[in-house]
Amino acid sequence: MNAKNYMVLIIPSKSQNEAFARVATAAFAAQLDPTIEELADIKTAVSEAVTNSIIHGYEDSEGEITIKCRMDEYGVEIEIRDEGKGIQDVEQARQPLYTSKPELERSGMGFTVMETFMDEVEVYSEKEKGTVILMRKKFASLAKEQGVSGNEG
Amino acid sequence: MELTANITGNILICRVKGELDHHTAEEFRTFVDYNMENNPVKHLLLDLTHLSFMDSSGIGALIGRYKKVSSTGGRVMVVNENKQVSRVFEVSGIYEIIKSYSSISKAINDI
Ligand SMILES: Nc1ncnc2c1ncn2[C@@H]1O[C@H](COP(=O)(O)OP(=O)(O)OP(=O)(O)O)[C@@H](O)[C@H]1O
Ligand SMILES: [Mg+2]
Q: Over the stretch A4-33, which tens digit does the pLDDT of each residue have?
């Protein structure tokens, strides 16, 4: 039943939407009874991806950011998409401490935070077209449920 | 975000309430830098008891403050960060340069 549930959120790339985006995504995921820590992980990862779209994707211009969140039998899949300037070298961008904007006091830890806090992070990007971040998080409560139904069946 | 500061000896004690992200980082920077520059203080102590959320934008802002404060021989310390904040600290390795304490008095005694 949960597997079919999803939500789509479209926001303009304004920094005041960062808090809204992470709280809204966490509220959606909360339906699956994750732990407080799992919810905090989702909030943090969403905050990183949305902030990147605002700062790097759209820089000084404004565009739309689309956040999709789907439930599956293990947890949630979150997609964050912008139609901004894209990433030339994704492998380099994902390196800890790499930032293209050191002058803005950025630490280059955003992707590392996403990778640490989520179970899977995929990055699709094309120069001048935009960037899609696809992240998955499994919830411990669902892993147990799967185990129980497996034993019963 | 709500920021308040007071001074104990040569330490600026800054309480950070709310969320430290890209949206609020500029306010945090301006507040801390202004108070460090316009008071006879050397060290910066951040009371994070009421900081409910922080991401890598906060890490960038903290490292920026650390660079300024340490360039004049001062230390940056944090107190009472919650679990979410401490996980972001750990991932970024910031505990290597900014020490954490369980209370303000313990931090002050360590200087
Ligand atoms: N949505 C995006 N559009 C274009 N470039 C991006 C996008 N997301 C990330 N990047 C590029 O990848 C680099 C690394 O991103 P990451 O989030 O790890 O670090 P940062 O944003 O530079 O610093 P921090 O997240 O620590 O504040 C960025 O500096 C930027 O060059
Ligand atoms: Mg980032």
A: 899 999 999 999 999 999 999 999 999 999
Instruction: Please check the confidence at residue A152 and state whether its pLDDT lies above 90.
Output: no
Of A37, A47, A104, the CB nearest to B55: A47
Query: In the 8-state DSSP scheme, what is residue A104?
Result: G
CA distance to A96, B43, B47, per residue, from B104 (Å): 32, 13, 7
List the domain boundaries for chain A.
Answer: 5-144
Q: Give this complex's ipTM.
A: 0.95
The CATH number of the domain holding residue B106 is 3.30.750.24
Q: Which residues of A touch B88 (CB under 8 A)?
A: 44, 113
Structure token pair of residue A73: 């039998």
C-alpha span between B4 and B61 (Å, rounded): 17
Instruction: Report the CATH architecture of A5-144.
Output: 2-Layer Sandwich (3.30)
Q: Residues A82-110: pLDDT tens digits?
A: 999 999 999 999 999 999 998 899 999 99
A55, closest residue in chain B (CA to CA): B22
Q: Which ligand is closest to the CA of A113, given by its number?
A: 1
